[in-house]
Amino acid sequence: MKIEEYLWTFNMPTDHPRVSFTDVWVPDTAMFGPEGGGLALAQHFVHENRIRQAASSLGAATFCIEESVKYARVRKPFGKPLSENQAIQFPLVELASTAEMLRLLIRKTAWEMDQMTKPEVEKRLSDKVSMCNYQANRLVCEAADRAMQVHGGIGYSRHKPFEHIYRHHRRYRITEGSEEIQIRKVAAWLFGYMGPRKAAFAEAGL
Ligand SMILES: Cc1cc2nc3c(=O)[nH]c(=O)nc-3n(C[C@H](O)[C@H](O)[C@H](O)COP(=O)(O)OP(=O)(O)OC[C@H]3O[C@@H](n4cnc5c(N)ncnc54)[C@H](O)[C@@H]3O)c2cc1C
Question: Which residues of the chain have pLDDT under 50?
Answer without folding.
Answer: none
